[in-house]
Request: fold
Amino acid sequence: MHVLVLGAGQLARMMSLAGAPLNIKISAYDVGSQNIVHPLTQTVIGHGLDSAIETADVITAEFEHIPHDILAICEQSGKFLPSSEAIKAGGDRRIEKGLLDDAGVRNAKYYVINNREDFDRAIEHVGIPMVLKSALGGYDGKGQWRLKDPAQADSIWAEMAECIATTETQAIVAEEFVPFNREVSLVGARAKDGSVAVYPLAENVHTDGVLTLSTAIADTELQQQAKQMFTAVANKLNYVGVLALEFFDVDGTLLVNEIAPRVHNSGHWTQQGAETCQFENHLRAVCGLPLGSTKLIRSTSMINILGEDSLPQAVLEMDGCHVHWYGKEKRAGRKMGHINVCGDYNGELQRKLCALADSLDKDAFPAVHEFAANFSE
Ligand code: ATP
Ligand code: MG
Reply:
C-alpha cells in the first residue's frame, strides 16, 4: 500500500514510522512548494499534485488548513479519506460549529461575526466574557481575542476588522467563555465498516495556547460521554481514519471545544502507552484494514518539546522515557519533538514526571514544573 499524506510535517513522519512494519509506504505532499517529499528525510522525490495522486493508493491529510481546490482534486480521485467535508469542518470554525450542532453534541454558545453590527449582536447573544476566534487559519491559540470588559470592544474590533479584511472568506466566531475545570481530548478511529475504537481520554495542559503536557486518564463516566460524542460526530461525517475531539470538562460535563480530522498531538502518548498507536490506527482505517486495539498498556504522559533541539542526558537515561525528535530546524516556540514517559502504574509515572522536572529547564518545560510543584504540595 502507498499512502500520500497532504502535509509534510511531523505527523506524516510519524505515520511513516508506524506504517513501515505493515508495509505501508508513505509519501508526503508539501502543499506550499508542491513537492512530493520523503516524510523522514524531506528529500524531494517528485513534484506536482497530479503525479502525487497518480502514484498513491490512498490519500489522507495531516492538517486541516488545506486550500479547497486541492481538496476537491483529491476527492475527485476517489482515493481521499476521511473526506473534504471533514477536513473543511476542522479548518473552518463556522462549519465546525454547524457540524457539532447537527451531530447534537454540546458545545459553547456562539455567534458568527462579519461586521461591527454582528459584533454588537454577539455581545448581546453570547455575553461577556467571550472568546473570539478567527474562523479560518487558527492554531495553537493564534488568531484569538478575549473580551472581558465592554470597554475593550473598540480596540479588539480594530484588530478583528483587520483580520477579517485579509481574506474574502474570513470571519470571526464569538464564543462564550467556558469556565472549565480542565481540558481533555478523545482520539479515536472509525473504520470503513463504521466500527469505532477510541483511546482512553487524555488530560491536556496548555501553556499560552499551546499543548505542553498530555496524560492518559481513566474516568469511566467522562469516557462514556466522550465516546458518545465522538461517535455522533464521526458517524455524521461517515468518517474514516483517526479523529480527535477536544473538550472542556465543566464539573464532570463535557463540551466539545473543537475537532481535528487527523492524528493529534494529544494522541502522541499512544506510541508507548497503547497497544496500537494512533498513527498505525489511522493507516489501518484509511487502508481498509481492521482497527488495532486502543487499550492502555501502561500509565503514560506526553511532554511537548518546544523551541529546544537538545535534552539533558538524564531524560534518555530514565527508564520508560522515550524521545521523539521531528528533525526540524530550531525556532523559538516551534514543536521540535516530544517525550513519552511511562510508568507501570500512575504513582510511578507521577514520580518520573517529578524527577524530570529536576533535569528539564523551567522556562522550556513549564507544565512539567507546574505538575511537580502541585504534586509536592
Ligand atoms: P489548537 O492548537 O488546539 O488547534 P486553536 O488555536 O485551534 O488550538 P482552541 O483549541 O480553540 O484554539 O483554543 C485554544 C485554547 O484556548 C483552548 O485549549 C482553551 O484553553 C482556550 N479556550 C478556547 N476556547 C475557549 C472558551 N470558549 N472558553 C474558555 N477557554 C477557551
Ligand atoms: Mg485546540
